[in-house]
Amino acid sequence: FGQAIITAAFVDDILSLVLFNVLFSLTGDFNVMATVVNPIIGIIFMAIAMVLAVKFWPKAINEWILPRIPQREGDRKVTREDEALLLIMLFVLIAYATVTHFLGTHLWGCFIAGMSFACIDREGHKGHAHHVW
Q1: How far apart, in whole angstroms, are the C-alpha atoms of residue 87 and residue 99?
Q2: What is the pTM of this model?
Q3: Could you read off the pLDDT tens digit of each residue along the chain, which spans 133 residues?
Q4: Which of 39, 72, 107, 129 has the fewest CB atoms inside 10 Å of its own CB, making it the most exposed?
């Protein structure tokens, strides 16, 4: 039952962001590009980013990027892998927010970037990406 509540909240957030974009594009004269086309492109971008979040980012980060990061000597609280993961998160955040800014609102990109790292875990540490942030 808890999964249904989380799913409903996620869908509600997405619909709110789409409605927010459409409402703020209704200024003055009706502009088909800003009111209809850009939200549709944004929804397509969200769908692509969703697939990337589940299929690409976990494998790319856990299997390709983080294993290539050299380790530091000594016992440190923040590892180089954590620093690299934070840097990747910032780059994805800026890239997604920039793309969606041109589609009407940067909030879509920020939301999508945050959700892109939900599937990234460290061995024995579920939800590790959210602790790094």
Answers
A1: 18
A2: 0.77
A3: 677 887 788 778 878 887 877 777 777 788 888 788 888 898 899 889 989 988 998 888 888 888 898 887 777 778 888 888 889 989 999 999 999 888 888 888 888 888 888 777 766 556 666 666 6
A4: 72
First to last CA, the chain: 28
DSSP for residue 126: T
Question: Nearest to residue 108, comparing CAs of 57, 49, 54?
Answer: 49
The answer to whether 39 and 100 are in contact (CB under 8 A) is: no
HEC string of 24-73 equals HHCCCCCCHHHHHHHHHHHHHHHHHHHHHHHHHHHHHHHHHHHHHCCCCC
Residue 118 CA to residue 123 CA, distance in Å, equals 15
